[in-house]
Every structure is written in C-alpha cells, then in structure tokens.
Amino acid sequence: MAGATKSSLSFLLISSLLLAPSLSTSEATVGHNVPIASGLSWTFYQNTCPSLEFIIRNYLMSVFVNDIGQAAGLLRLHFHDCFVQGCDASVLLDGSASGPSEQQAPPNLSLRARAFHIINEIRNRIEKACGRIVSCADIVALAARDSVFLSGGPYYGVPLGRRDGLTFATINATLQNLPPPFANTSTILSMLATKNFNPTDVVALSGGHTIGLSHCTSFTSRLYPTQDPTMAQTFAKNLKVVCPTANSTNTTVMDIRSPNVFDNKYYVDLLNREGLFTSDQDLYTDSRTRGIVTSFAVNQSLFFEKFAEAMIKMGQLSVLTDNNGEIRANCSARNPRSMSDLVSVVEELPVEEALSEI
Ligand code: HEM
C-alpha cells in the first residue's frame, strides 16, 4: 500500500476511534429504535466480559491499518451468515462427514479466507480475557459493525446473546437465500421481503457495496457478449480492460469513487450508471427504488441511519438464544459431544436408539 494511502487510512482509523460514542453499547447509538429479538440484549456481556468490544476493536484496528480490505470481507461474512439459516455462525463451520458445508456453496467460495482466521483469532483473545462465554455469531456481528465504523461508516449498537448453531445449511438452501448479482430489483425485493426487509432496507443494505472487491465473473455477463445498455460507456470500457474475458479471474473495486471508505458514493456511482452488478444498477432503474437511491446519494446521514437500522434487523435474523445453540470453542467446528451429552442420550433413549446416536 502506498505511504500516502496508509497514512490517510491511519487518520481515518484514529478519527473513527475518537468519534466512537463509547466502547460499550451506548443508549444514544443509532438504531436503538429497532425492536430486539427475545433473548438478545444491548448489555448481554456487560458483567461477564466488559472488555469484549475493546478487544475486538483493538485487534481489528491492527489488521485494518495494514489491509483495510479485510473490513469488506468481514462485513460480507456477517451478511452471508445471517441470510442463510439466521445469524448462527453456520457459515463458519468446516465440512464434515455429513456433507459439503455452507462454505462450499458457490456464493461463499469468494468469501475471504482471512475473514475466517480473523474471527477465530478474536475468539481466542476473548476466551483468554473472559473465558468461553461469547458466541462466534456475536463476534461476527460485532466485527462487521466495527468494519463499517472503522472504514468511516456509522456506529450502531449490536444486540448480543446469539448462540452458535449446531448444523450448517445445504448448498441448495444457501443458493436459495443469497441473491445472485444478476438478479433485478423485482427479484431482490421479493427475496428480501421474505426476511421482512422493506425497499428502504434493501437499498440501504446494498450500500454495503461501498467497500470491497468483486471478481470479474460476478459481472462479466454485463459486458460479454453484449454490453448492458444501462452501463456507462467509459465505465464498461475500463471494466473490459480489467476483465479481458468473461471468465477472467481478476478482481476490481466495487465503488470506483472511494473503494476503501464506507460512504454514500456507491449511490453516486448508481446515478452515473457505474454500478457493478445488475442487482446494484437496477435499484436506480426501477421506479420503486430509484427515489431511495437518489435520497441516499444526496444525503449521507440519511443513508447511515437507514443502513444502521437495516443492519440491526439483519443481525437478528432467526437468531438462536439460550439453550438453542452453543458457545463454540472453535468457530470452525461445533463442540465435540461431551461425555455428559452421551450420558444424557443413553439415559433418555432406548438402548438401540442411544447406541445409534453415539
Ligand atoms: C442485495 C443482494 C446482494 C448481492 C446480489 C450481492 C452480491 C455480491 C457479490 C457477487 C459480491 C462479489 C463477490 C466476488 O465476486 O468476489 C459481493 C461482494 C460484497 N458484498 Fe454483496 N451482495 C448483496 C448484498 C450485500 C449486503 C447486504 C452486504 C452487507 C451489508 C454486502 C456486502 C458485500 C461486501 C462488503 C462485498 C465485498 C467483499 C470483499 O471485498 O471481500 N452485500 N456481493
């Protein structure tokens, strides 16, 4: 990374930290008007792990100062976790004898490998400080919030108390729940409506594309064999240089105006017909969402407010709480069944069934 870019990034990180309302969730934080799911709370670890948010923030700052791209990877990881089977950290589970994991589903193949390592590293640090009491799903949600905030975006409170799931979703379920980049607004609106998101939420969440990278294959169908007429000429010409063929393995930034800063420039891109995916650009073509895109392009505070609300909603999709999940000792694997679990299986079931469970 060039020296100038690195020092401006350090400036952004330091000013973000100074502007943070507090290291614990503050009542004044954006988004506190969003209802919270039963079993979650704004102060869940206040007594059991008061340094939780500090540990995460501190570690992420040390990562981002060298590679701010990781912020995008962590934000996308939270989205992919929550949309498939709820925010239960199932996307983190490695495959097992039970079949290919969620990670092997095509949309998850481009999640950044380092995002998974970062989550495990944070988990280890938290366990050292507080014991094994914080779920991987909560860590993913907090890491996504800090990724947004440390890249220049809004700070919002994260209701906590999620438990980690015991199973991962099938490849089919993953495909059915994550919209593809070639989807138009009608498809995106109806897919997200099933998860209770309104058009404002949809446009706001899509603003996550203000940071990060995409592989050529996610959008070359808009370039080859014929160019999508809704794409600006010069933008298309430049993309063809980065992606000389439809199956090029190259990557490019998703927001050409400010690729590493969480701001409202993604919407300015759309107004200029410089959105990367059909799912992005069509939000400006479709009359149901066009006005929302414009309102965010001209008013960053409005975008930040709506993004924070939609993220708090997203972070609560089908959460597991209390005894409905576990606190993993390793975010990539469910906990081994303990002797006491086996004893309870043996006690509860007839002998043959108990043996087959084991
Ligand atoms: C609305 C439907 C969405 C679609 C169709 C979509 C699709 C995609 C695709 C295809 C990529 C590029 C993958 C690649 O080629 O490497 C991507 C990247 C990304 N998406 Fe989305 N996405 C959607 C919603 C979201 C949401 C809700 C968020 C977060 C709030 C998000 C955050 C990101 C980020 C940060 C990246 C860059 C990741 C990186 O640099 O590693 N996306 N998305």
TrEMBL record:
The keyword Iron applies. Its cofactor is Ca(2+); heme b. The active site is at H80 (proton acceptor). It is an enzyme of class 1 (oxidoreductase). Residues 39-335 form the Plant heme peroxidase family profile domain. One of its GO terms (biological process) is response to oxidative stress. Its EC number is 1.11.1.7. It catalyses: 2 a phenolic donor + H2O2 = 2 a phenolic radical donor + 2 H2O. The record marks R76 as: Transition state stabilizer. Residues 1-24 form the signal peptide. Substrate binds at P179. Keywords: Calcium, Disulfide bond, Glycoprotein, Heme, Hydrogen peroxide, Iron, Metal-binding, Oxidoreductase, Peroxidase, Secreted, Signal. It is found in: Secreted. Disulfide bonds join C49-C130, C82-C87, C136-C331, C216-C243. One of its GO terms (cellular component) is extracellular region. Ca(2+) 1 binds at D81, V84, G86, D88, S90, E102. Binds 2 calcium ions per subunit. It comes from the Eukaryota. Removal of H(2)O(2), oxidation of toxic reductants, biosynthesis and degradation of lignin, suberization, auxin catabolism, response to environmental stresses such as wounding, pathogen attack and oxidative stress. These functions might be dependent on each isozyme/isoform in each plant tissue. Belongs to the peroxidase family. Classical plant (class III) peroxidase subfamily. Belongs to the peroxidase family. Ascorbate peroxidase subfamily. This is Peroxidase. It comes from Hibiscus trionum (Flower of an hour).
